[in-house]
Amino acid sequence: MSSFSTTGDSLRQIGDEGFYVVNEVVSKRLGHIPIIKGDFHLLPAKVQRFVTEKVELMRPRGIYICDGSQNEADEITNKLIERGMLSPLKAYENNYICRTDPRDVARVESKTWMVTPDKYQTVTHTPEGVEPIMAHWLAPNDFSSELDSRFPGCMSGRIMYVIGFSMGPIGGPLSKIGVQLTDSNYVVLCMRIMTRMSPAIWDSLGDADFVRGIHSVGVPRPVREKVINHWPCNPDRVLIAHRPAEREIWSFGSGYGGNSLLGKKCFALRIASNIARDEGWMAEHMLIMGVTNPQGHERFIAAAFPSACGKTNLAMLEPTIPGWKVRVVGDDIAWMKFGADGQLYGINPENGFFGVAPGTSHKTNPMAMESFQKNSIFTNVAETVDGEYYWEGLEKEIKNPKVEMINWLGQKWHIGDAGKAAHPNSRFTAPAAQCPIIHPDWESPKGVPIDAIIFGGRRPEGVPLIFETFSWIHGIFVAACLKSETTAAAEFTGKSIMHDPFAMRPFMGYNFGQYLQHWMDLAKAPKGEAARKVPKIFHVNWFRTNKEGKFLWPGFGDNIRVIDWIIRRLDGDDSHALKTPIGYVPTEGSINMDGLDPVKWDELMSVPKEYWQEDVKEVRKFFEAQVGIDLPAEIRRELDEQEKRIAAM
Ligand SMILES: Nc1nc2c(ncn2[C@@H]2O[C@H](COP(=O)(O)OP(=O)(O)OP(=O)(O)O)[C@@H](O)[C@H]2O)c(=O)[nH]1
Ligand SMILES: O=C([O-])CC(=O)C(=O)O
Ligand SMILES: [Mn+2]
């Protein structure tokens, strides 16, 4: 029998919150835990049990059941303004800025764990002494002690918010429900933008199971250390742990989005990829865009680039060649499933954009700019005395270039001063529905038909602007070899090229060899279903540089020129592709360059033999060290074949 029961309504004011208690949870051990908002009795029984168990563990001073309403958001926002955590950006409507503790600015890959009874459910068989980089494993016993040293009493003196949310349109066949508990009201406001949060969740859920998220900033009251920028966090004790079998996430010590908005990377990628494997679909770090050509025919494309490598920008691109139209379905995560008709369909499980601010401007990404003119939250950007946001990349667009600002560290700052205005991983959080080019079908429950998948990364050297892979399996091989220069989205400093297979290294939810096998298996339709029409797979590189380190390709809106070539390939145009050892590249003249400053075609498109000889050796080492016996034989064969093709160049 549960040690909890609930009592009826009572009305009183508690603490300094000024909220009224409508009912309360009674624990034999803890006494009365006031429900500050919402009706506990209306939660599904399983959610009630989840909440009461965690209340007993984390001992908040009150429970706040969120309904996702505007009133609720206003109430929380006002509270945060009072406390100094948020401030309004007066130049816009309902836009707010906040600065984090400077130690809490990005995902912490090294403290992110998958907890499975068998190590090899999580990681591949790496040789003695080789630390797996794709997923980090924590043994259940070790997890228990990590948990015990953090969570008991961690919400003491704080309010626990209960957030019911749907990833994907509520009730849709590809959608999933989660419940996140958190003691951060910043997280509540951001989850309200990033997920679908409404009382309809509880009706849709009924008795069914849900993904459980438990999040605490890890600063119980009374607070022992000084809180910086009104941003409580506990950087030394950060832990982001997932129990895939239990569909459960435990996040401690960080308020930064990628660590704390549990619907996003933790649920929609790490946990969902486990569900997807069990249920025969895919959860990927991909944008989805609809592209209409001048003839009026629309195609949907999914694309995976590592963090801060251009997904948001590609998803919303404003074409620089006439007649083309791009509309965004999603900018970061795609859940995709083959239909019985053999077509792959994809949804964007999110409800908002959590985008990189620096580099975003009317020139590079006007549609993102339009999306965050209201109802948005900016984290770690600079603020001008006129109440505008500012970051690197807006130099030419700011009204008054001499204006005084407060930089992300809270110091007075002007353009030209030392240091940066905004943290390189500063972010905007904006409702997707506000994007002027949001696709009319972006909330279609069954998803949009995906005809091509693009992979890419930041590759200063050797990798052509675009190539098409030879087959589904060769495409999987190319995605497994994906590499990119490190960015500020995680804790790595300095620029080095890292492996980031499928742009999923930080988000891998299970053994990478099995993940590859799952991708391969998806090509085969189950009995009774139409043969699967697997998407064509491409690789792009917007970031190749010349000897001076300058980008050879203008990128952004001009990337439509590459998409145009891709779509012609989908349409069966065979006349404009040259076979190379790594795939098909465009023949010179087959990419529309009208109106562009001259581009150094050879430097941009070449496939240098020496570079690729080195690359294939390096990839072989990587596979041996990081995938080992878990590497499917077919993928090893692709490597062998590619090596032979390169040798014969
Ligand atoms: N040179 C160049 N830079 C680009 C291009 N596209 C994006 N960028 C820059 O890359 C950075 C990150 O781009 P985003 O589109 O936000 O990256 P993302 O893949 O959505 O990142 P996450 O949200 O971290 O997953 C920004 O500073 C952009 O300005 C491009 O085509 N060329
Ligand atoms: O998770 C985050 O912090 C933001 C993001 O999209 C990424 O890093 O890929
Ligand atoms: Mn991302």
UniProtKB/TrEMBL annotation:
CDD domains assigned to the protein according to its UniProt record, in alphabetical order: PEPCK_GTP (cd00819)
GO cellular component: cytosol
Enzyme class of the recorded protein, top EC level: lyase
GO molecular function: GTP binding; manganese ion binding; phosphoenolpyruvate carboxykinase (GTP) activity
UniProt keyword list: Decarboxylase, GTP-binding, Lyase, Manganese, Metal-binding, Nucleotide-binding
Sequence ranges assigned to domain Phosphoenolpyruvate carboxykinase C-terminal P-loop in this UniProt record: 281-645
Catalytic activity: oxaloacetate + GTP = phosphoenolpyruvate + GDP + CO2
EC number: 4.1.1.32
Coiled coil: none
GO BP terms in the entry: cellular response to glucose stimulus; gluconeogenesis; glycerol biosynthetic process from pyruvate; oxaloacetate metabolic process; propionate catabolic process; response to lipid; response to starvation
Every Phosphoenolpyruvate carboxykinase GTP-utilising N-terminal domain range: 50-277
Known cofactor(s): Mn(2+)
Protein's UniProt keywords contain Zinc: no
A matching Pfam family: PEPCK_GTP
Signal peptide region: none
Subunit annotation: Monomer.
Family, similarity comment: Belongs to the phosphoenolpyruvate carboxykinase [GTP] family.
HAMAP family per the UniProt record, alphabetical: PEPCK_GTP
Function noted in UniProt: In parasitic nematodes PEPCK carboxylates phosphoenolpyruvate to oxaloacetate thus introducing the products of glycolysis to mitochondrial metabolism. Catalyzes the conversion of oxaloacetate (OAA) to phosphoenolpyruvate (PEP), the rate-limiting step in the metabolic pathway that produces glucose from lactate and other precursors derived from the citric acid cycle.
Protein name (Swiss-Prot/TrEMBL): Phosphoenolpyruvate carboxykinase [GTP]
Organism: Plectus sambesii
